[in-house]
Specification:
The protein is mainly beta. The protein contains nine helices and 50 strands. The radius of gyration is 31 Å and the shape is globular.
Amino acid sequence: MRLLAQGQRITGRVTSAQDGLPIPGVNIQVKGTTTGASSDANGNYSITAPGGTAVLVLTSIGLVTQEVAVGNRTVVNVQMQEAINELAQVVVTGYNTTQRKDITGSIASVSPDKFKDIPVASFDQALQGQAAGVQVSQSSGTPGGGLTVRIRGNTSISASNRPLFIVDGVPVEDGNLTGRDFGGQQDNAFSLFNANDIESIEVLKDASAKAIYGSRAANGVVLVTTKRGKSNQKTGFTIDVQRGMTDVVRRPDLLNSSELLDLQREAVTNAGLDPDKLGLVKGVTDGISTDWVDAVLRKGVYQQYQLSTQGGNDKTQFYLSGSYRDEQGVQINNQFTRYTGQFKFDHKATQKLSFGTNMTLSRAFNKRVKGDNFLDGVYSGAMKSLPYYAPYNDQGKLTVPNDPDYPGFPNFNPLAQAVLPRFNTLTVKLLAGLYAEYEIIQNLRFRSKVSIDYNNVTEDNFEPSTTAIGGFLASVGGQGYGDFSNSTLSTLINTNTLNYSFQVAEKHRFNALAGLEILQRTERSGNVQGRLFPSDDFTYITSAGIVDQGTSGIVNNSLLSTFGEVRYDYDEKYLATITARYDGSSRFGQSKRFGAFPSLSLAWRVSSEHFMENFRFLSDLKLRASFGYTGNERIGDYQFLGTWASTTYSGATGVGPAALANPLLQWERTREANVGLDASFFSGRLNVTVDAYDNLTDKLLFAQPIPQTTGFSTVQGNIGKVSNRGVELTISTVNINKAVRWSTDLNLSHNENEVVELASTEPLFRGYTGNGVGGTNVIVQGQPLGTFWGLKFLGVDPATGNSIYNDKNGDGRISPDDGQVIGNAQPKLYGGLTNRISWKGIDVSALLQFSYGNSILNLSNSTLVNTGADIQNNQSRQALKRWRKEGDITSVPKYVYQDTYNNYLSSRFLEDGSYLRLKNVSLGYNFPKKWISKYKVGNARLYASATNLLTWTRYSGADPEVSTLDGSTSAQGIDFFTFPQVKTVLVGLTLTF
């Protein structure tokens, strides 16, 4: 046997025995000496051992301590068993990883096990109800549609409030990619990712956790890590199949022809007119009764298929997957189809050098339909359309503008608007990176990675002469309208980090990280429009008689960043982290281009103190505190410049000023303070996390109103302050852990948002123009963002049936001056409750997601319960509760034809938006291995799943979760003919070979 020479260098990797993943932060010590080291972010370590008889002692809270004899080896790889799962969990913290036990900031982790059976279209949807402090709402039920994600409230007014999303180390495009919203609804860039490829999701919530991302971290950071191959894993294959049906969670309750005719006749009679003379004749007008909502909706088919393979040894690991998803929209002619491929490769070339690559390639095809508040929208038109009309004429063809009765056809025949236009969006995404890592000296590693996020979007739209725009809109010409656009959004990023882990004496452990990052984003776009097509058989711009509109442009922005982090751990008892980032952005003038974002966090593991030894039921108790600054620069480009644009005057083309300059424009900054407690009891059977935070955003990037005598209405500036204060609670329990295992996860969040300061005390109106008031929403000091504005509705006068409004200014009349704050869209409490039960291969899980204390402005009812102001729209069944005779007690005023007073925008349209939703329930069965092993199948699981199955709410609309203006900060919580969520019921099969 060969004995090791004195001072022989030993290297190796520490991985989890449960899943083969690397474990960072493990303390490795040569037994009987003070020589020690720590495993790095990839689980690697190196240490000098005195000889062949040396024994390595590996320790870490949450892991079973191991002693490993070195023998004659120079490479010693160790698999460690978890003692307490929650504490041993490896967490991605930015440019590094650590174990949960060593976290000093506020980080929430979401395992893919929590959404593996759910047909989520995007990974941000998977966060809903799963993490404290994270509020996720799906703006509508449109396939591939937008979601709103907020972490600890809204920090900004004009700049983006979306978190920074990092996928495999790359900040990716978020929000919408298409250039055209359909009535306020956007697409979702994350629908291009396959959620089944995700290994972990971490949500960074406080300054300590996210200050490493500095300028873009004020709204929180979501880190997504995709799957990779594992060491010592035989190559295996996994097949996953899902098929199901979709339908809307609830359909609006509208009137049929006879009910509506009675209501209209009453409204006309109350106005002193003869309804017969207006064509409202009993037995004639209501001879047809069309259910328009039923005409434009269907039960959709959902299907997804995936094949993946992964494997590896100590030197090389790989992961490869391909998937196909097809979601037939519940609205007719609406469909979302996606192909994705994922490849990840890691190789350790030598003891010092390793390298690898990752690539995600996807292609999505989205057949869209117009929706929401479009006059020619499909679902909105179906809700408003009079049931007296039929979608087909006497010849059995769709009623279109060429038909004689079309000019009097309200809302443009929604069925024709669904099936006749072409609104196709093709999106291709490439997310790819190449990295190399080299160990310069023992435990000092340099890593460099170059990545690209490339997105190409082609939008192909055509509205023939048989549609509202192509055949009825006078300015188009009645012979069709076409629009074709292409845009490319690409981000190129180079990240370089130097990481050094070392140990002093026995108890002092350090990890230092320094980095340099360069990012450049380029957006290219072009658009062309045509009209007067020779026939509806010619649908592309090349055939247009007139091509008279078009645009093209290119926009660049870049970031230059340096950052650093130092972690200190004394005896796994006292922990400290110092983080700082220094960012320079092209979005600000030279004198204000750079900003510094530091943070400090401390933690005390109380459970490691000697005086806690008698509390054996307490597995871990840690107190945390952090303070720091983060920023926001997501306002668009060139806004600090005084820009010029082309203009036309008296037929001549020239240039004119487009925006005022502000060379002092600078970073929006958020000061963040957080205190927290992490506790684990009874060997991990009960885990509790509590956080309280106080965040203040100042130097708001805000379009400041200025006198219009300047020629402009606003100038981009830094004015105002917004605060967010809140409390978060997370409880995880293992209630039964025998033959039956039952676990529960609960998260609760409370956030108080307030506009602390603006440039003026005058209210700033946002959202829609309100009937009888300034607007539906307002930004005003002392109130939260998302505040509703209107008249205060005091009820219906039992004597007259007219609305009673609060005369706020006491002038004896109701006017826009009586407008006031009437409610807010932000909830007082939100969260989720998940229960999982397993027994002999059977598993059941259920997620309840809720929101409490938020209001919804049911703006649809300003049309559907309009008290006779307009009789060209159908009405909700609520209208049957109207005042009809003296003495009636009701909340619905009397109907009077063309009288708008009773229909002023007021708190009559504001409703309680609280809801409790059975977001997901699933039932699965894992076949016994003795049944399937003879077929060379490693695992087989059959499951059924349902989403949005039940909703408990007092909201009268179809869905309490929707928001017409997708992603809006100041005008959230409006339901204006917004398409509701869909419920999905599916069955799935997973096979592993």
